[in-house]
Amino acid sequence: MTEDFFPEFDDILEEGGDTIQFFSEETDFNLGNQAAISDWIKKIISKENNSLRQLNFILCNDEYLHKMNVEYLNHDTLTDIITFPYCDPPVVHSDIFISVERVEDNAKIFNTSFNNELHRVIIHGVLHLCGYGDKTEEEQKIMKEKEDEALLLLKHHK
């Protein structure tokens, strides 16, 4: 399922569609409430008129994600998320890597809870896969509005 990028995950991924899975790599962090988070993500994908094939979230540390950022994107910087899409919208099929350490630091910077920031980063990646960008000011405004809508939906979903 992960094409040639990440063969180490091939043996644990399910074949077929409509699947969201969460993994931890080089971190002890485990996402709680995975079923509710998965349902929420599926609702957002559907709401955006996209269809889910496979989404794998790999939660990791800064060092792991930094190595990937350098190796695959030639960016020598820390980041909170890297998304590897395997097809274009309206089909969502991707591996999404998230640095738990970046999320924790950003939560402090933005004066929000860790969970809120993690959920924002998760849905930010999903929205990219649904076709939203964030390069221009207008795209950033739309992305932020979509993130806020999604977070509100999650709050009511719990």
Topology:
Layout: E1 19-25, H1 34-47, E2 51-60, H2 62-73, E3 81-85, E4 91-99, H3 100-109, H4 114-129, H5 137-157
Parallel strand pairs: 1-2, 2-4
Antiparallel strand pairs: 3-4
In CATH, the architecture is 3-Layer(aba) Sandwich
Strand content: 15-25%
Q: Strand tally, please?
A: 4
The global form is globular
According to CATH, the homologous superfamily is Metalloproteases ("zincins"), catalytic domain
Number of domains: 1
Query: What's the CATH topology name?
Result: Collagenase (Catalytic Domain)
Question: What's the story with the biggest beta sheet?
Answer: 4 strands, mixed
Mean pLDDT: 91
Contiguous low-pLDDT stretches (5 residues minimum) are 7-16
Q: Which radius of gyration do the C-alpha atoms yield? A: 15 Å
Distance between the termini: 30 Å
Separate helix tally: 5
**Class per helix and strand makeup:** alpha/beta
CATH class: Alpha Beta
Q: Helix fraction?
A: 40-55%
Give a short synopsis of this structure:
The chain has 158 residues and is of the alpha/beta class. The chain is 46% helix and 20% strand.
